[in-house]
Amino acid sequence: MSTFREQAQELVSKMTFGEKMEQMRYDAPAIPRLGVPAYNWWNECLHGVARSGAATVFPQAIAMAAAFDRPMLYETAQAISDEARAKYNEYKTFGDTQIYQGLTYWSPNINIFRDPRWGRGHETYGEDPYLTATMGTAFVKGLQGEDGTYRKLDATLKHYAVHSGPEALRHEFDAKADQKDLYETYLYAFRYCVEHADPSAVMGAYNRTNGEACCASPTLLQKILREEFGFQGYVVSDCGAICDINNHHKLTANEAESAALAVKSGCDLNCGSAYVWLKTAAAAGLIDEETITEAVVRLFTARFRLGMFAKDCPYDNLSYDVVECEKHTKLNRQMAADGMVLLKNTGILPLNPAAAVAVIGPNADDRLVLLGNYNGTPSRYTTFLKGIQDASEGKVYYARGCHITNQKVGNWAEHPLREAVLAARRSDVVVMCMGLNALIEGEEGDAYNGDRSGDKADLELPNSQRELYEAVIETGKPVIFVNVSGSAMNLCRQSEECAAVIQCFYPGAEGGNALGDILYGKVNPSGRLPVTFYRSHKDLPDFEDYSMENRTYRYFKGKPLYPFGYGLSYTNFQVKSLTAERTEEGLSVSAAVANEGSLDGKFTLPLYLTRKDREGRDPLRWLVGYDKAFIRAGETLTFRIAIEEDILAMTGEDGVRSVKPGEYEILAGGFEENCMGRVKIRL
Amino acid sequence: MSTFREQAQELVSKMTFGEKMEQMRYDAPAIPRLGVPAYNWWNECLHGVARSGAATVFPQAIAMAAAFDRPMLYETAQAISDEARAKYNEYKTFGDTQIYQGLTYWSPNINIFRDPRWGRGHETYGEDPYLTATMGTAFVKGLQGEDGTYRKLDATLKHYAVHSGPEALRHEFDAKADQKDLYETYLYAFRYCVEHADPSAVMGAYNRTNGEACCASPTLLQKILREEFGFQGYVVSDCGAICDINNHHKLTANEAESAALAVKSGCDLNCGSAYVWLKTAAAAGLIDEETITEAVVRLFTARFRLGMFAKDCPYDNLSYDVVECEKHTKLNRQMAADGMVLLKNTGILPLNPAAAVAVIGPNADDRLVLLGNYNGTPSRYTTFLKGIQDASEGKVYYARGCHITNQKVGNWAEHPLREAVLAARRSDVVVMCMGLNALIEGEEGDAYNGDRSGDKADLELPNSQRELYEAVIETGKPVIFVNVSGSAMNLCRQSEECAAVIQCFYPGAEGGNALGDILYGKVNPSGRLPVTFYRSHKDLPDFEDYSMENRTYRYFKGKPLYPFGYGLSYTNFQVKSLTAERTEEGLSVSAAVANEGSLDGKFTLPLYLTRKDREGRDPLRWLVGYDKAFIRAGETLTFRIAIEEDILAMTGEDGVRSVKPGEYEILAGGFEENCMGRVKIRL
């Protein structure tokens, strides 16, 4: 039996040069004489099958990262790929696929959330390379399946590489990253995922990196991705990115030149219209058939491997009834609760079920805020308000309180502030559901935050919400502040004035139920911040500066409000002992953790490494391992975490990674004042 | 003890001329030295307290009219006024009121829904003067309360008069209505409500009527409203309408002239900024203090009568806990179900609870479509999808199927049609939730239907929905078509091709539960159309033509698809006997109605009058009475309906109404082929 590549080679060999070039478009036409149906390569499943109707909408990627739970993310990706396959099985009965109906998914987004102002940061797994790498690996594996022969879906790592805003400039921007930052931060997760998860595809970014357009970069695509990392799959352009090369980056004179440059640099598939010009490029001698053939063979290898031309693909039997099934809904609720991060608690949580609650804020009863972006359409939603109504046994008052932003509010508009004050006055406790939504922080072209194309100007709540906050705080009622955002916000005042603070990101269709579970103690919070919560954007470098200096918990020299990895529980976990020993594969760490409180709960144990004699631009500390487990009240559990040799390494100015000999310390649970245990180790 | 008017006179006598003029603004300032707090007159409660946060959101007015149930509308208005007072009691603790926090409500809208293209038609009680008059009366009475001394709220009849589009022209339009149409159609409900419900206020319309600006019309406001109808309350302008008099109607040179003309014509209160110019007008001698004083006395009489300066107003004790209380929610669900109109049923309804159902359409899971316009904010919603999910015992598939309109959909947008086909294929029956929403048909400045300012161009579904409909019908699955709109649509194809057709208007926060109740037979449908469903807008006169010729069931000579008053039941009602006798007050009609089917249900009995020797432009038939009652299966109930003398009258070309002697027939249940019984009567 021939390999998928051989099958692809044979099929492609029957195509004309012109037919081959047409197959490199994301909207590939049918070739009826060869039995090739039309196929649209574009599909999305960042946190559930997206843009294809009903689907289980899991929490946004950043929220799933906050759960710090690889097995659960893997299980979630399995659920997503089950739904994706089930949908595909139905769609293909039409004889072709339209957009968002195929098996080739342009997820996950493993860019580093370098700066909290980036509008698309909530699509990522946060600011840490190792967390991103391991989350990305779990997600890709869950999508692509474990069948020995066929691939369940194609996962696509994006956006390769060094891509994190500004959104307004993305089509023309040149990101400057030196070799150290490149390998230590921006490429780490790409390399790790290629090595550990064998992703089918990689998507090139819109921007330039160090002068080369990412979708047509010999350095990024050939030298690094294929030669250094050993990537075996196909490369797809971001949508319209190849036309940007001439239109905005001004590196070529026209679309034909851009298309030829991209293909020759290793970009096999084009989302957009640039590759329509490949025929022109070929006629002008800018591209040869051999290069084209190799690209098309890669693409058809993928299609064969997905079982598109087979009769024995086991995934063809997945039934549509898996879509939004009870099992997925239950998993979704669990993921949503585990991705919420308790930042402060004076003891008011878990709430007394009989308490009268005022639920206040523009995000309290909004369905869209649950969904983030790149989302599907749940056929059942639970807003925060609904979740609280269902969980509470007391009276629940609701007041929107203000418009989410203070734009376009005339004299004759509703003025909802006083109602919020009234609701607060009548209640024992106030739950404020505030923050942003994916129309405020999001992608250029999508987000309504018009003047900044989806990015944030700062870390502040919109003025309308600050006014509401003041008025509610003035009532003197205890406030549980639920910050709903995909990015770090300035919560300094809340951290001082509120009885409790919860960061809940965009928690998916079950978000309200999950918040209810957390507030009333049905679930003990276990989420941890996947990003640093700074006190102000003024503590940060310029947004356009891609140097990692003074960015993220690894390099930030200031005092954040809440550090990366921070997150509280309703119970009292203690690290009772911590040992580390060198192994051939890296380090083996044992940590005995006791639940000394009175509630059961999951404990997330992050491990950080720090070097005694830190040099130059090396990180202050970095995540080298993490695990999570359920520990009953009164019980002690020993975590055994294997730290990979690779993550012990540091990156030189030349980009080369190596383990630098010296004295190190492993910090368990947190760093600085949040460290729960430490052990020295010599590497 | 002095009357409220005397108290007002005394208070006003202490005001300076300038202070008085300031009190005629809707945003009246405080006069601290007289103990008068600031008061904002503008509030709305068309179908629930609106624009003031959480409230029970009842079905839109047109849906409540479809219930043909005066006692239930009265009860609904009582619920609304309870919530309104409860909110006011809280708001006034701030020492003043902001917009939408006072007791003076600018509801109901009793304009005649003359043409289905009018975007605001769903705010009205439909196309019939008697139905509108009686519904308006029940609503006003329920709002204003029955306390012997104090008024619970002020109700405001609007928009006086001859106001029904086009929205785009409303600030400059001159509606032409001859005396017959004026009194027979446009003014009937205003007169009836003034005579029967003593409304506190009347709002002048934006447009001119027969050359005079409605808010400054001596004919409408002085001669007709006050002198002929005996109206005792105050008149308020529509918002910005007085500036229109110079800016758009060009009847005056500037705001000062407009303001003076309006006050002198009888408009006591100004929504907008025109009356800021009253001081200028007074200085120029355009208006005298006596006229101003009378207006302000009227306004303060109302404020005293509302108990704003009293300590013994019984409504001050209404607690906030009445807002969205269980009793109101239950009433809301009942009203919503009773306002849905079954237009066709092959027998598929009520649905088998075990059937697999595909719920398809852009209105299926939309919360906003429940609310219509001039709405409050429910703290609990049930979308149609949710209502079906909760009511069904079988599998429920959901597919949005299309965008509600086909605007702004690019190549890269989601293409949801195929999913709908898949859902239909997998189901036993399809429920399509289609139609419009209040962003498509609505008010100028509010509605997003930009090119027509909220009006409809025709009666057709948007193209996107027609395409979806075709695709779903092609699957061959039985379709229950739920048309969600505030106005008549062309449902010709649906009436032929679908297994059932339901018109459900904008049914309020409990709309989904109500639809579930109807679909699964928990509630037997009893609603009736308050408007004619034409086959095409081409059957109608020009939209700008205000002549009633060939408009509404009273004058329309064509063949409608579904006539005014039409509506089916799941059971089989028969009129077994019908008698009518002349009384001093009009007519007394007896109708024995048997429920010969196997299901209990409410029966709506409309009575129409038709004159044997109809003359000239007299109506073909007109509603003269109606009642509604619950009749158990197998039982017979006798309706006794008193027909008022007034509605027997016909209107001459001079506008004078009189009972024309001759032979008449009373038609029970419907007219033409829908007539269930008839009796001759000589008047």
SSE inventory with pairings:
2 copies of one chain form a homodimer.
Chain A lengths: L3 H10 L3 H6 L4 E2 L10 E2 L20 H6 L3 H22 L37 H16 L11 E5 L13 E2 L3 H8 L1 H10 L3 E4 L3 E2 L2 E2 L4 H11 L5 E4 L3 H7 L7 H11 L12 H6 L5 H17 L20 H13 L2 E5 L11 E4 L23 H8 L4 E4 L17 H9 L3 E7 L27 H12 L4 E6 L7 H6 L2 E4 L7 H9 L32 H4 L17 E10 L3 E10 L5 E11 L10 E10 L4 E9 H4 L1 E2 L5 E2 L4 E6 L8 E6 L1
Parallel strand pairs in A: 3-5, 4-6, 5-8, 10-11, 10-12, 12-13, 13-14
Antiparallel strand pairs in A: 1-2, 6-7, 9-14, 15-16, 16-19, 17-18, 17-22, 20-21, 22-23
Any overview of this molecule?
- The structure is a homodimer of 683-residue chains.
- With 683 residues, chain A is an alpha/beta fold.
- Helices cover 29% and strands 17% of the residues of chain A.
- In chain A, the strands form 7 sheets. Chain A has a 6-stranded mixed β-sheet with strand order 9-14-13-12-10-11, sandwiched between helices.
- In chain A, helix 5 runs parallel beside helix 7 and helix 13 (326-338) packs across helix 18 (511-519).
- The longest helix of chain A has 22 residues, at 70-91.
- The radius of gyration of chain A is 25 Å and the shape is globular.
- The two termini of chain A are 49 Å apart.
The largest sheet of chain A is:
6 strands, mixed
- Kindly, what is the distance between the CA atoms of the first and last residues of chain A, rounded to a whole number of angstroms? 49 Å
Spans where pLDDT lies below 50 across 5 or more residues of chain A: none
Please estimate the helix content of chain A. 25-40%
Q: Number of helical runs of chain A? A: 20
Strand order of the largest sheet of chain A: 9-14-13-12-10-11
Q: Quaternary status of these chains?
A: homodimer
Give the percentage of residues in beta strands of chain A. Answer: 15-25%
Cα gyration radius of chain A (Å): 25 Å
The residue-averaged pLDDT of chain A reads 97
Name the shape of chain A in a single word: globular
Sheet/helix structural class of chain A: alpha/beta
Strand runs of chain A, count: 23
Greatest interface (CB-CB under 8 A), with counts per chain: A-B, 39 and 39 residues
